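Same chain as my last thread, 188 residues:
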Amino acid sequence: MRESTGGTRQRIQAVALELFTEQGYEKTSLREIAERLGVTKAALYYHFKSKDEIVNSFVEDRLHRMDELIDWALAQPATQATRRTLVSRYADAMFTIEQPSVMRFFEQNQTVLKSLTAGQQMRERMMRLADVICRGDDSPRAQLRAALVLFAVHSSWFAVRAPRITEDERKKIALDVADELLAGIGEE
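reply #2:
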């Protein structure tokens, strides 16, 4: 039985993400991705014309999730409860099954991402999300706290290095730190 086009695309994304994380984006070629998949470069090229397209494909889902969160938050009052719920929902999205490998890719390929459209879009969404977090408090302290709230969620993938920590424990630590930072937003 033939594999569906969607399944093939997902396999390509998974293998590319694995290679980009192991070797780095710049050192990985489409040929290497095809070889690891056991397909020809032409077969890979049918689904993705470039490494940039592969990266864009797994960033698009994240951007969509972030847009949904931003839209939801903007429809809510600018309260601490809304901020906490927003950050909790964001953490839930970041702690899905495929996200640890995506987060490792972002962390290990930051320089390259700055030049890719996908990286620029992620940065723009992160800034919009931080703006929504500090909505109602435009002080410089609130802006910094909002950015650090998001960084607390992201950095838990590489900053928390405790052996044998579960994903739930990692997420709880990230949300506890985020909550401490959120407490200073909107307060005089």
